[in-house]
Amino acid sequence: MKAVSKFDLCVIGAGSGGLSVAAGAAQMGARVVLIEKGKMGGDCLNYGCVPSKALLAAAHKAHDMHDGKEFGMKQTGLEINFRSVHNHIHDVIEGIAPHDSVERFEGLGVTVIKSKAKFMDARRVRAGSKVIMPRNTIIATGSSAALPDIPGLADIDYLTNETVFDLTRAPRHIVIIGGGPLGVEMAQALRRLGSEVTILEAKRLLPKIDHELAEVVAAQLRKEGIRVVEETNIIQISQRRSNAVIHIADGKSVRDIEASHVLVATGRRPNLDELDLDKAGVLFSDSGIEVDRRLRTSNKRVFAIGDVIGGIQQTHAAGYHAGIVLRNTLFRLPAKADLSVMPRAIYTSPEIAEVGLTESEASQLHSTVQSLKWSFDDNDRARAERDMEGLVKVVVTKSGKILGAGIVGKNAGDLITPWTLAMQEDLKISSMANLIAAYPTRSEASKRAAGSFYAPTLFGKGTRRLVRFLSMFG
């Protein structure tokens, strides 16, 4: 019988969530084993957040060099070396990789096993030749690209987020299947770097985002020459010489689109294969592992965090989950996750960021809601930068309770933070209206949107009568 290794925590998966748990627990004195069959850093470092933002940075730089006419500058003959863009992406990954490396985690006291992990029963996990019996196990295996059931897709050499960053030449014409966050980010980046781009979306572009915010980005993509085909059905994909041919029906006609490259960006699926969750008594579905608010699975000794539980699949969500799990496992505190104030961001230009409910979601849950808006074309900083696309949109109740906030515009991912804090601390809209914002900043748009809640009363007849009455006592 194999020897059993005992640990306080067994972490399966060395992505952002798993690494946060392992590092935190080890530095607080816990005995931790970390199991990873692939690359340290997981999807975020190698195929997701890091390479995509590096690619977007290159694309934005190229766009800025083209787009200086309004400032009195003109750039002609800009040459883009796509191999250098590729090298930039991988240089960024390599610069961050040591922070997520086996060597660093072993230096923290974590036992790292490079192997697949399988549950043997409710307590034991097998990793290679080792059998581990931890006090608690944390599943943090992340997610992978979900492939749609399209006839002929398997017969072509398509791209996913795991392969698109390996391109060393700009695609001549890339068709992106899926108009979600990944699809629109990659579409804009590749277009700005010289590719012809078409997006095919079965619903509307960015279907989970507030429609008013999504429309601003959709308009910008079209302005930059990206073809956006919404509410379309892909009938089949076939190969024609070196190109792929996508046969589509978009409600008006049936037609073919020929492309040099196809990128599949139709969402994510949780990585559950080979874990033998049934043996551990862990319930799961196609959407992910089922957890309670403490992030415990049906086996109370096993927790699950990050993309593998579905929901908001962003790195900061996994980091937040890690903190909840550490309080539950190391300190035996019944900490619960509150996912209602989890911000989400899309890093197009303009960016989109949201927290809480959209206007549509809020209207379904509350009898009366009010939408407060302030456009960046009425913001002095935005005018000075000649970047006035977008708005701040906040949804509140009659009493001023903040139900959600959304921003589309430059730096929206940063500007959403005060709204996240306000909702997290259950502040009313008055707190944001009374906030002192530095001038000139885009943050003033948030303050002005909040202040508009009081405009009908503050500038109404009652106030004017009161001011006139008080002036009589000069």
UniProtKB/TrEMBL annotation:
One MF term in the entry's GO annotations: NAD(P)H dehydrogenase (quinone) activity
Please report the stretch or stretches of sequence annotated as the FAD/NAD(P)-binding domain. 7-321
Give the residues the record marks as binding NAD(+): G178, G179, G180, P181, L182, G183, V184, E185, E201, G267
The UniProt keywords, alphabetically, are: Disulfide bond, FAD, Flavoprotein, NAD, NADP, Nucleotide-binding, Oxidoreductase, Redox-active center
- Keyword DNA-binding applies: no
Quote any Pfam family the record assigns: Pyr_redox_2
The Pyridine nucleotide-disulphide oxidoreductase dimerisation domain sits at 342-449
Q: List the disulfide bonds.
A: C44-C49
Q: Which cofactor does it need?
A: FAD
Q: Which family does it belong to?
A: Belongs to the class-I pyridine nucleotide-disulfide oxidoreductase family.
Q: Which PANTHER family match?
A: MERCURIC REDUCTASE (PTHR43014:SF2)
Tell me what this protein is called.
Dihydrolipoamide dehydrogenase
